[in-house]
Hints:
The complex is a heterodimer of chains A (168) and B (271). By secondary structure, chain A is mainly alpha-helical. Chain A has seven helices and no strands. With 271 residues, chain B is α+β, with helices and mostly antiparallel strands. Chain B is built from five helices and twelve strands. In chain B, the strands form two sheets. In chain B, strands 1-2-5-4-3-12 form a six-stranded antiparallel barrel. A six-stranded antiparallel β-barrel of chain B has the order 6-7-8-11-10-9. The A-B interface holds A 17, 20-21, 24, 27, 30-33, 50-51, 54-55, 58, 61-62, 65-73, 75-76, 79-80, 82-83, 130-133, 137, 140 and B 12-14, 16-17, 20-21, 23-32, 37, 40-42, 44, 46-47, 50-51, 54, 111, 113-118, 120, 122, 156, 184, 186-187, 248.
Amino acid sequence: MNSIFSIHTIRFVALVFVQVLIFNHINFLGYINPYIYILFIALFPVSNNRVILIMLSFLLGITIDMFLDTGGIHAGASVFIAYIRPIVLKSSFGMIYEHQTMKFNAVDFGSKLTYFTLLTVLHHIVLFSLEIFSISKILLILQKTLFSSIFTILLSVVITIIFSRKSK
Amino acid sequence: MQQIINFIIRNKNFLLFLLLFGFSLLFTIQSHSYHRSKFINSANFLTGGVYNSINNINNYFDLKTQNQLLTEENKRLRSLLSNSAIALDSVFTDSLMFGKSYNFYTSNVIKNSYSLHNNILTLNKGRNDSIKQDFGVISQKGIIGIVDKTSANYATVISILNTTSRISAQLKKTNHFGTLTWNGTSPEFNQLIDIPKIAPVVKGDTIITSGRSSIFPKGVPIGIVEDFKLDQAENYYEINVRLFNDMTSVEHVYIIENANKEEIKNLLSDN
């Protein structure tokens, strides 16, 4: 229990720093940035308490917001996907999730990709809607969501592959 | 009573979600209204400290371009000095600086941002260096923004690339003035609105600050007219201004204090 706790603390801090110091300065084509800190929410153990996850997501989001001066948009989007996560898990993993036995290292690649894609797109839609905050600019919101999502999904998959322990 | 408690326990996830989402919305809405984002800003000890230590390293990478910018500015100021009408041997050299109305402070940008809808910069000077809210910020080439929040050692700046930013600006050749805004699309352009139809706007005209807001002195360069069109009511021009500043790369900036600001403010509120 203790080692799981420390792994997630390290992951939290590391993702915040990597997000703030590196991935926010990419600005590919002027405005496209990946938001890989949501990996923390995506890879949080399935069996753990939902209340803790929602609270931690809020904390994560508000920390990012503090660094980026964005009010509460990251907090809002993170809390949203933390709340909606069980539904996404069920729709992308199906039976394995129902039996409460899944480990993120041991699922097949296809359903993992679906899972990341769903979470990322949901997160980015909420994020950019809150950032731009006007319905008349819906096209801009969708455009930003699309491009940033592609970037985020690619990077999250690469990072999970690099940092996953070999399942024997 | 029992049922209410049961309801709360049953729906605790949803209620927690609603509560925290509500908080986030509150912070977001606050950040959208000018000067009201209270708690969540990067001028605090933690974020300012992190950005400052990283900036200490990143500084070295564009030392060359920044030096070039500073030399260019020195060249411009020297040419102004040597070509000015005042003879140099009879300068008014009272050290009390009587009648001085603008104070300048230098500072470094430790966090720049230009890809969002509401961009905010962080500077490494704060209350301890007598920086206060509503001081203007300019760079060698033109305006950057207005100081928003200050902590002991850091300050945040509402960039001109912020959809809530409103700065009084005018045409250089005539005195027709309007408001400088940003529509959130390109970091190279700002929009100058409310210029009356009668103004003789031509492509390539220079836009400067008007000095009406008591934040910036008159004549700080902003940019040149890229294109312009009449607004929907056909009474005012909407001008696309190409900024002199490359907002994606700012390092050394000047903070401007208007020493007469209180006086102007009091005078205005008397009426």
